[in-house]
Specification:
Blueprint lengths: L2 H14 L5 E5 L5 H12 L5 E5 H6 L10 E5 L5 E14 L5 H7 L6 H19 L8 E12 L4
Parallel strand pairs: 1-3
Antiparallel strand pairs: 2-5, 3-4, 4-5
Helix pairs in contact: 4-5
Length: 154
């Protein structure tokens, strides 16, 4: 964690009394604009899930998120924005995503058709950067979460 991120985490712990350690510190998406767009959906309560290729965790030698994990979410500029708590995480092939999950993820028109199109494009961009090819049966971590704290001005 950067000093600003550590200060935000310390403030979260002081304000909530929750002394758990952070599982992750991250921004959604792969660009500052997308990070800010998705963060706004979290803050308004629309986005309550996210999907990540299992390979991303494996490349980072990191376990996938699990129920009860806390993460510090950053904005598009890398500044602390909020804390989320994982409420459920399932690993399954990409092509098994459900309409309900797409709606819970809260992006676009919240349909499975929109979700698939957007995530295929995103995962393909990710795979290209890794020198890999995306597969419709690739294992995905379907993570559900709840927004539990917002880092606002003091």
């Amino acid at each position: 964690m950067t000093p600003d991120q550590k200060a935000a985490w310390d403030r979260f712990q002081a304000e909530t009394g929750d002394i758990r350690e952070a599982y992750d510190v991250f921004a959604f998406g792969d660009s500052p604009a997308l990070a800010d767009e998705l963060l706004a959906l979290v803050l308004e309560g629309t986005k309550r899930a996210t999907a990540t290729r299992l390979a991303v965790y494996q490349l980072e030698n990191k376990r996938p998120p699990a129920t009860g994990d806390l993460s510090l979410v950053l904005d598009g500029q890398g500044r602390p924005a909020c804390v989320i708590e994982t409420t459920r995480a399932d690993v399954a092939p990409f092509n098994t995503a459900t309409e309900e999950f797409a709606h819970t993820e809260g992006e676009g028109d919240k349909s499975l058709i929109w979700w698939r199109k957007a995530h295929i494009a995103y995962f393909r961009r990710e795979c290209i950067r890794e020198g890999r090819t995306f597969s419709m049966t690739e294992p995905i971590v379907f993570e559900r979460f709840r927004h539990i704290w917002t880092h606002g001005p003091r």
